[in-house]
Q: What sequence folds into this?
């Protein structure tokens, strides 16, 4: 049973047990030990699951709120955190670099391998949705660099490249970047 199912099942059980508790002869004071044992051994993991599912929902909302906040700065032309990474003002773990792109480990990895590949020159590419024909070369270069990164990281047999474009895709940094993810079994569809 997945966590979500357990959580749904658990919350319905909890609801029912509260209702039943009020109506049944097994009110909290009269509840026999066997029932109490069942509740603590069975409902405890269910409650934990429900709590975990709730915190995942909260984290998703935080991520969406952060993305919406960043979206207000789209096309402001303001430097992003990635400019500071390119200029080495902010340290990062560089995996690959050439004259056009920089690839470095994500600070908050979502898989054993999680590398960001970015153009050194943003050139209006705050997001993929702003791409123009003049960007074809750099877009191809970024994809090829992602494959080089996958090779270097030993995941070339199976990896995923993700580009979040815009607030509804939860983009949070407005400097085009490709996420290269791997080192574990990926799931589909993505969230
Ligand atoms: P987005 O949500 O815009 O697609 O992805 C932005 C990514 O940049 C996130 O995965 C986030 O963890 C990563 N990130 C944000 N700030 C930093 C930083 O200062 N250093 C590194 N290495 N990654 C960062």
A:
């Amino acid at each position: 049973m997945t966590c979500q199912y357990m959580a749904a099942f658990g919350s319905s059980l909890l609801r029912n047990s509260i209702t039943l508790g009020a109506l049944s002869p097994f009110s909290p004071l009269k509840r026999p030990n066997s029932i109490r044992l069942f509740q603590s051994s069975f409902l405890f993991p269910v409650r934990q699951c429900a709590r975990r599912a709730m915190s995942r929902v909260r984290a998703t909302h935080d991520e969406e709120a952060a993305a919406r906040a960043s979206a207000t700065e789209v096309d402001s032309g303001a430097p992003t955190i990635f400019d500071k990474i390119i200029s080495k003002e902010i340290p990062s773990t560089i995996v690959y670099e050439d004259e056009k792109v920089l690839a470095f480990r994500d600070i908050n990895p979502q898989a054993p391998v999680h590398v960001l590949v970015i153009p050194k020159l943003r050139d209006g590419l705050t997001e993929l949705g702003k791409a123009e024909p003049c960007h074809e070369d750099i877009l191809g270069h970024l994809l090829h660099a992602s494959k080089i990164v996958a090779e270097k990281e030993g995941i070339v047999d199976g990896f995923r490249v993700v580009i979040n474009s815009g607030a509804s895709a939860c983009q949070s940094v407005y400097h085009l970047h490709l996420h290269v993810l791997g080192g574990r079994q990926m799931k589909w569809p993505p969230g």
Observations:
- The beta strands are 94-97, 101-105, 113-119, 159-162, 178-182.
- The chain is about 45% helix and 15% strand.
- The CA atoms of residues 10 and 42 lie 9 Å apart.
